[in-house]
């Protein structure tokens, strides 16, 4: 069965899209640690990141870097953190998380954004890429 992220990539489930190329797709995390929290996902559905072939892994890092640089331009934060977890969704994804404090990277505290706030931040990041 297709993962929830494959369904997002295929447009069956809505998302706040940030970027896409032939191999990868980026969209806002629906339950963000901080505003601007973005997921970068290979279109190829592989559960664990270190099971990706080496070239896809390297390309995912390059794609994530490009998105992270865009996020940093528009989100007020000290830096962009990168995490890979995968305990909830078994389809490789890189979390890009705007950080101001250590707590922002723990996944223990979340922010609630309105529909308008999600739309606004997504369009600003898209414009910064
Ligand atoms: P993990 O698999 O533990 O790395 O976490 C999966 C992440 O995907 C969580 O941060 C969720 O909030 C996020 N997530 C799950 N479903 C969606 C969705 N439909 N749209 C955006 N983000 C999602």
UniProtKB/TrEMBL annotation:
**GO-annotated molecular function:** catalytic activity
Among InterPro entries, the record links this protein to:
Histidine_triad_HIT (IPR001310), HIT-like (IPR011146), HIT-like_sf (IPR036265)
Q: Which residues form the signal peptide?
A: none
- Which positions fall inside the HIT domain? 4-107
- Identify which residues the record assigns to the active site: 93 (tele-amp-histidine intermediate)
Recorded source organism is Galbibacter marinus
User: Pfam families this protein is in?
Assistant: HIT
Supply the name of the protein: HIT family protein
- Which superkingdom is the protein from? Bacteria
Q: Lineage in the entry?
A: Bacteria, Pseudomonadati, Bacteroidota, Flavobacteriia, Flavobacteriales
Cross-referenced PANTHER family:
ADENOSINE 5'-MONOPHOSPHORAMIDASE HNT1, HIT FAMILY PROTEIN 1
**Chain positions of motif Histidine triad motif:** 91-95
One GO term (biological process): nucleotide metabolic process
């Amino acid at each position: 069965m297709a993962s929830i992220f494959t369904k997002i990539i295929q447009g069956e489930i809505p998302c706040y899209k940030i970027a896409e190329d032939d191999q990868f797709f980026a969209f806002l995390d629906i339950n963000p640690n901080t505003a601007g929290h973005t997921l970068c996902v290979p279109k190829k559905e592989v559960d664990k990141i270190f099971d990706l072939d080496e070239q896809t892994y390297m390309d995912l890092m390059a794609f994530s870097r490009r998105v992270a640089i865009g996020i940093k331009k528009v989100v007020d934060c000290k830096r962009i953190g990168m995490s890979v977890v995968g305990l909830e969704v078994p389809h490789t994804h890189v979390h890009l998380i705007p950080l101001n404090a250590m707590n922002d990277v723990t996944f223990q505290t979340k922010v609630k954004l309105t529909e308008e706030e999600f739309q606004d931040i997504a369009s600003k990041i898209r414009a910064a890429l």
